[in-house]
Amino acid sequence: GEDVEQSLFLSVREGDSSVINCTYTDSSSTYLYWYKQEPGAGLQLLTYIFSNMDMKQDQRLTVLLNKKDKHLSLRIADTQTGDSAIYFCAICPSGGSYIPTFGRGTSLIVHP
Amino acid sequence: GAGVSQSPSNKVTEKGKDVELRCDPISGHTALYWYRQSLGQGLEFLIYFQGNSAPDKSGLPSDRFSAERTGGSVSTLTIQRTQQEDSAVYLCASSSRVPLGYTFGSGTRLTVV
Fold first, then answer.
1. Alpha-carbon gap: A105 to the closest alpha carbon of chain B (Å)
2. Which residue in the set B56, B98, B102 is minimally distant from A97, CB to CB?
3. Residues of chain B with pLDDT > 90: what percent?
4. How far is CA B71 from CA A16, B30, B53, B74, B99, in A?
5. What is the distance in angstroms between the Cα of A79 and the nearest Cα belonging to chain B?
């Protein structure tokens, strides 16, 4: 099955850019997502990208997809303390089952 | 409804008891998923319902776990003879047939003592 890897922690200074990385194994993945989880809450969809795209930008968020290297990244510009949370990438295969596989999550810590 | 609703939000149960967790998905969403999130771990897939098709139960960890979805809407996850290793947050999500994102509930935190 699909294997999705993320680094567990990222610490950045307020105002800097954050880059959260994700690698996956299934080259047929069709839909790729980034989710945010704040303490005690469920997962909130931040953005998604289709496999036929290389980049997607949405306000402070930029998603880059490198299909050759099976690498997905999320860049948060001008990171704020309110961005502190766990960020999950999720990969959905093609083939119709649409069951996403999630990474273990990257804990983003933003300090003043 | 406006979002995915899960109940209860917290459940403490004694080892060996049965528990039922409920998920009310977004109206019109044909797909429903159950995941388990243990402390410091990612999301572990449990079961997937899509419309009237047979559910994909490939993620259920043992035969103590079962789930059903009545009328294509509300789903119940049942854990029989709970064990301490079942302690986790159980998350439910729903989506349309082609998933432009999954909407998650806030989860049920299950503690087995």
1. 6
2. B56
3. 76
4. 49, 11, 12, 7, 21
5. 23
Residue B1: the pLDDT is 54
Asked if B106 lies within 8 A of A42 by C-beta distance, the reply is: yes
Q: How far apart are CA A54 and CA A70, in angstroms?
A: 11
Low-confidence ranges of chain A (pLDDT < 70): 1, 95-96
Residue B14 CA to residue A109 CA, distance in Å, equals: 36
Using CA atoms of A44, A30, A65, A27 in order, give the dihedral in degrees to the nearest 10: 130
B49-79 per-position pLDDT tens digit: 998 889 999 999 999 999 999 887 999 999 9
* Chain B residues touching residue A31 (CB < 8 angstroms): 99-100
Short-list B28, B2, B49, B33, CA closest to B96: B28
Query: pLDDT tens digits, residue range B34-47?
Result: 999 988 778 999 99
Ramachandran angles phi, psi of B72, nearest 5°: 70, 15
- Name the nearest CA neighbour of A41 among B106, B3, B5, B10: B106
Subunit contact B104:A43, Cβ cutoff 8 A: yes
Contacts of A65 (CB under 8 A, 6+ apart): A32, A49, A51, A53, A54, A55, A71, A72
User: Who wins on pLDDT, B89 or A40?
Assistant: B89
Q: How many residues does chain A have?
A: 112
Choose the closest CB to B42 out of A40, A92, A102: A102
Residue B76, token pair as written in the block: 């119940």
Rounded CA separation B28/A63 (Å): 29
